[in-house]
Design a protein that fits this description.
The protein is α+β, with helices and mostly antiparallel strands. A hairpin with a 4-residue loop joins strand 2 and strand 3. Helix 4 packs across helix 5, helix 9 packs parallel to helix 13 and helix 10 runs antiparallel to helix 11. It starts with a helix and ends with a helix.
């Protein structure tokens, strides 16, 4: 009986190890890179995953580290606080591939050149990762996402022998985000307002791999030793069916230009005809104050990269309180002094625009100019009425 059990154990081990044989490319692992999907902001940067296939057993799976669940407890609060849990899941690769192709996204496959021990280690790592107690991880859009997970897994499985090919060029996280959001200008504006100067620092080539396309490029000529290339074959599916994304005609530049012309018009009328526009000023200062309150919250109480945000110069939280003084002016002197300080800070922001460590969104120029015009118009008109 004992001999029989030993025989079964040996047979099982032999079958398990033989399933990873690379003969005739019957089994293996691939890195899958999926193109951007600009209809949704969270898919605008593309996606990455790991494929495992075994033609002998019929297994063909896609390990996906980009899954989030709207039904998780406190989903929206966790999202706001930058503490959203993502998880890894195991799906049918043909089904996943067809899903992305139906969205008219390219699918690039890079077949990994791993030895048998590395394949077993990678397989065990992924299978352990998808267990319910291990599947969740704390997501970060630049430091811990679907692409960086793959970078880190390969580094752990292969070890110090792994050498990624360096993608040249000095860029920041914001530079790369801007590159992928050029057709989603409102999304780009929102990110530029909410995230601070930390994402404007020049990043290493390893950090560039938070973008799936840059992970793909870094794997192209990667090696596991001086003589072994990591990628032995690359296949590109659906390369020519990507349609040019047409963004909203009402871009931030157009909306803020209309806003600026409107501000110039009412400011001219206020100065010439002594017409007050207190309700408009109330909404302008209330809106900028609420934006400032959000930015302060993101900076002080969340894990977002929102610290020391220079957008707080124009979006002051104190504007919320000042907005109500336009409804009922309790102290003209206080309001004038506040507006002088506020206008001075806006002018200083313009003078230092190209020197501060944060790359502010250029479409904000007309918005801030409009706010500055209103502040200076009110300084002039309130001061004039005080001496009459």
């Amino acid at each position: 009986m004992k001999v029989h059990k030993i025989y079964i154990a040996i047979l099982f081990c032999f079958t398990f190890l033989s399933s990873f044989s690379n003969d005739n490319e019957q089994s293996g692992f691939s890195i899958i890179t999926i193109g951007p999907y600009e209809n949704e902001l969270y898919s605008a940067f593309g996606h990455s995953g790991i494929r495992y296939f075994n033609k002998n057993t019929g297994e063909d799976y896609f390990y996906n580290y980009g899954i989030f669940d709207f039904d998780q407890p406190n989903f929206y609060l966790n999202f706001l606080n930058g503490r959203l849990l993502y998880k890894v899941g195991k799906y049918s690769y043909p089904a996943a591939k067809n899903y992305y192709i139906d969205q008219e996204r390219f699918v690039k496959e890079q077949l990994l050149n791993l030895d048998q021990s590395q394949e077993i280690l990678l397989y065990n790592y992924l299978e352990q990762n998808i267990l319910p107690e291990n599947a969740n991880y704390l997501y970060n859009y630049v430091y811990d996402n679907c692409a960086t997970k793959i970078r880190d897994i390969l580094s752990e499985v292969i070890g110090d022998q792994l050498n990624f090919s360096e993608v040249p060029g000095d860029v920041s996280f914001r530079n790369l985000m801007d590159m992928y959001l050029k057709n989603n200008l409102w999304g780009d504006l929102g990110i530029d307002i909410c995230l601070g100067p930390e994402i404007d620092e020049v990043i290493s080539f390893q950090d560039k791999m938070f973008i799936p396309d840059f992970l793909f490029e870094s794997l192209k000529n990667a090696s596991t030793s001086e003589s072994n290339e990591l990628i032995k074959e690359t296949v590109i599916l659906n390369p020519n069916t990507i349609e040019e994304f047409r963004g909203n005609f009402l871009t931030p530049n157009i909306i803020f230009f209309i806003f600026f012309i409107f501000i110039l018009t009412i400011s001219f009328r206020q100065i010439k005809y002594d017409i007050s526009y207190n309700l408009i000023d109330f909404f302008i200062f209330l809106s900028t104050g609420l934006i400032g309150l959000l930015l302060s919250y993101l900076w002080l109480f969340t894990d977002h990269l929102s610290g020391s945000n220079f957008n707080l110069v124009w979006a002051l939280p104190s504007n919320i309180l000042i907005s109500f003084l336009f409804i009922k002016i309790l102290s003209k002197k206080f309001l004038i002094n506040y507006l002088i300080l506020y206008a001075s800070s806006l002018i200083a922001l313009f003078l230092m625009w190209n020197f501060i460590p944060q790359n502010l969104n250029e479409s904000l120029v007309l918005l801030i100019l409009g706010i500055l015009v209103r502040a200076m118009t009110n300084i002039f008109c309130i001061s004039r009425s005080a001496v009459q």
